[in-house]
Every structure is written in C-alpha cells, then in structure tokens.
Amino acid sequence: MAAGVDALQTRPGVLARLGTVVVTAVRWVGRLRGDRVLPGAALLAAVVLVLVETFLVAAPYLPLPLAFAIVIVHVGAVPVALRIPNVAAPLSLVAALTLQWLSAGTGSMLWPWSPVLIVTQCLVLGAVAARTTLPVALLHWLIAVVLSAVLAAVLRPASGDETSADVAVFGSISAALIVVALLLLQWRRVRSELVHERRMAAEEAERRLLAEERTRIARELHDVVAHSLSIITVQSSTARFRHQGFSPEAAAEFDRIAAQSREALDEMRGLLRVLRGADEDAERRPQPGLLDVEELVAQAHRAGTSIVFEQPAGPWTAGVGPLTGLTAYRIAQEAMSNAIRHAPGSDVVVALARMGDDITVSVVNTATGEPAVDSRSGHGLVGMTERAAIAGGTVRFGPTEEGGFAVEARLPVFVRSGVPA
C-alpha cells in the first residue's frame, strides 16, 4: 500500500493538470449539450487525442497499424457518444482494456490508466452522462473501474499497490467528472426553466399593460366621442318636434343625420366593447368590404353630396381577401369624409378598379374656389397610409391640377397573415 501512495506522489502536477482538463471538458459538455458546436468540438478533440494516444501510448509497444486501429476505436467513441452513448461507452472500454492488456509487460508505473487514456475515457463517460441518466452513467463507470481492476490484478499481480492506486485515480477522476457533468446539466435545466418563467412573466405584464391602455383609450372614447355622438343623435331626432315649420325635405335630412349618428354610435359601442375585452366575438362579426362601398356612396349622396360611383362590371371582386376589402372600404370612407369636410359643395368621384393582382381605390373631389387642403400631417391621411401598409399596399394623395384633391390606394388582391400573397 505504501508503494501505491508513493506512486501517486510521483505525479501530483500531472494529476492537477489532468483534473483541470477534465473539469473544463465537462463544463463544455454541460453548457453545449444539444448545441451545434458540440459535435464539432468533440470531433476536434478526437483528432488531437488520436495523434497523442497513438504515439505516446500505443506506438511504443505495438506495431503502428495495430496501435492506430485500436486508438481509432477508443478515441472515436468520444463523438459517437454524443449520438449513441450506450454503444460508444462499451466500445471505448474494450479498446482501452485492449491497450492495457497489450502494454501490461512494459513495466510502466502509469498503468493500467495512463493520463491520456484517462482523458479519453473521461470524455466518453462525460458525454454518456450528458446524454443519458445518472443510473446509466454510473453503470458504465462501475463496469470500467471493475474490469480495469480485474485486468490489473490478473496481468500484474505483483504490482497490486501501484495498479490499485492507478485504478483509484481513474475511478475518482471519472466519478467526479460524472457528478460535475450532471450538476452542470441540472443547472442548465434550472436556468432554462427560470428564463422561460421570466419570459412568461414579462409577457403577462405586457398583456396587462396593454389591457390597461386599451381600457384607458376606451374610457377616453366613451367620455368624448360617444357622448358627442349621443348628443347629435338626440338633437337630430328631436329637431322636428322642438322646432316648428320644417319642410319635409329638412325633416328627412334630420332623420338621415339621426340614422347615420345612430349607426356611428353603434360602431363606436362595438369598438369600446372590443377595447374593453367584453366582446369576445367582435372580431368574428362580418366586416365591411368592397361590395359595401356602394352603400357608403349612397349614404353620402342621400346626405346631399354630389358624388359619382364607378366600379367594373361582372364578378370583379372574386378572390379578394377580407383584409384587402376592409382596407379598401376604410380608405374610401376616410377619403370621402375628408372631401365632404374640407371641400363642401365639390363634386366627388369614387372609383374602384381591378388591375391584375391589385385593387385600386380612387377618391377625387373638384375645386371649390378655396385653396386645396393638403394636410399631410392629418390623422386621416396618416391612418390611410398605415392601413394600406399593413395590407401590403400604398396610398398616394395630393392636390390635382384643377385645384381639387385626390387620394389613390393600390392594394394586393389577397393578403395572408399580413403578407401579400
């Protein structure tokens, strides 16, 4: 036993450096498990170990072809263990025991496990621990330690202390490697779960902030816009009763104002329900499309606007996606509202057309004797541009040569998931 202790004391620096190499290798195995870099790193380590192990361990005692063949099996198990660990571990152990058996008569003190053999075998066991479970990794470790101890006892019975110390060194280093590898893997799993939980918490906080902001916007809309629309509706509905002497035409005009105000108020209430999250089926309700633009023009005409509507004949809307139809409707609605508000008394032309894979929406109003309005910073024009961009289209607007104002939008026929098909 004293001889074994002396054998251990002859190589403290080698063992220290070997331990550092092993711990570093295990750390990489733990961190890079499943990473694309790991197979390349294992292959690079295998190439280096083939050269070192062939010329330092096997070649001095064996013919070079035989030494190279055995070393290839032993070292090749390192990258193989990342794919099929339960096959790589027995192969590497058989190759290591073969090298130990063939070099048993050399009289080397670093037998049966030389430092290079320990590094290679520990890398294999580390990869096995990273790819399997603790019982499987411990089983492969126990088999390696027991078989090498039996081989040492059979081939060198007179050097029991030295060989036992060498086997003990291998067993200690490899066991520590497996423990460290498993701890690193467990730490990596815990960190991954922590990152996932933090991401879920951040997403939940973001959803909560979004809901609060939507509620605030809904409250502002209710207090300002919905209240004003309600007043307009009530005043226009009761005008004929509060004021005498209205002509039938004027009374009908107020009735149309009241009807349009009620329709706008209903839309506003639906929007408020969506913003408050109280109407889960709001997004499933039918949205206006291209075919509804004609009724939009008819409403403006009944309100006294001189307006002309042009659209192709036949089933020209076939294949038009819902997002394109809704975007075209909203752009035509906003452009008509701008023409009526900024150019009262002008003639308005609304034209829809299909040009290949695009839908065009054009709203042009004539001059009114006042300077043409070109408010590029207005919310209406900005909103039209943003709507068209979401659908993958574009909007152009500006004064015409005759002094009027024109808005023209070009939209793709069909949009899937916000991307033009």
Summarize the structure in words:
With 421 residues, this protein is an alpha+beta fold. The protein folds into two domains: 2-199, no CATH class; 288-421, Heat Shock Protein 90 (2-Layer Sandwich). It contains twelve helices and seven strands. The chain has helices at residues 2-9, 12-32, 37-58, 64-80, 85-102, 115-131, 134-155, 160-242, 248-276, 293-302, 322-342, 379-390, and strands at 306-310, 347-355, 358-365, 394-399, 405-412, 415-416, 419-420. A five-stranded mixed sheet has the order 1-2-3-5-4, covered by helices on one side. Helix 6 (115-131) runs antiparallel to helix 7. The longest helix is centred in the middle third of the chain and has 83 residues, at 160-242. The protein is rod-shaped, with a radius of gyration of 41 Å. The two termini are 80 Å apart. The relative contact order is 0.06. Mean pLDDT is 79; it is low at 1-12 and 417-421.
